[in-house]
Amino acid sequence: MNEVDVYIKEFPVEVQERLTSIRNIILELAPQATERICMRMPTYDLNGKWLVHFAGFQKHIGFYPQPEGIIAFKEKLTDYKTTKGTIQFPLNRPMPLDLIREIVRFRVAEQSK
Fold first, then answer.
1. Distances, alpha carbon 18 to alpha carbons 27, 90, 112, in Å
2. Half-sphere exposure (CA, 13 Å, Cβ side) for 86?
3. Torsion angle in degrees (nearest 10) through CA of 113, 48, 75, 40
């Protein structure tokens, strides 16, 4: 079991499922990314640069796609709390897995330039 597995196992089963879904999307779209814990969060690096990271919290999942990932999807993120580099996906709502997939795909394309 690696450190990201250990991180995910610290959460209730319902949250584990959400975190695992995000992780699987990242690993599917960026299989060459390296996975590690940084700032106490699962972090993914691609081509030597930070791609995305995510974290579980009491009431939401935090997803961190760099400011560019927020700006590019600003219109699709109006239903979520965002900051310069953070999106909060509330635990009391379905996870927008298709949107997360789009954002990760966008970030992979950015990192591959």
1. 14, 11, 27
2. 10
3. 170
What is residue 13's predicted lDDT score, i.e. its pLDDT? 96
- Annotate 25-52 with b (16+ C-beta within 10 A) or e (fewer): bbeebbeebebeeeeebbbbbbeeeebb
Domain count, the chain: 1
How is residue 14 written in tokens? Answer: 């319902």
Element (H, E) at 101: helix 97-111
- Percent of the chain beyond pLDDT 90? 95
All residue ranges of the chain with pLDDT < 50 are none
For residue 112, what pLDDT is reported? 83
HSE (side-chain half, CA atoms, 13 Å) at 95 = 20
Domain CATH number, residue 32: 3.90.1150.200
Structure pTM?
Answer: 0.95
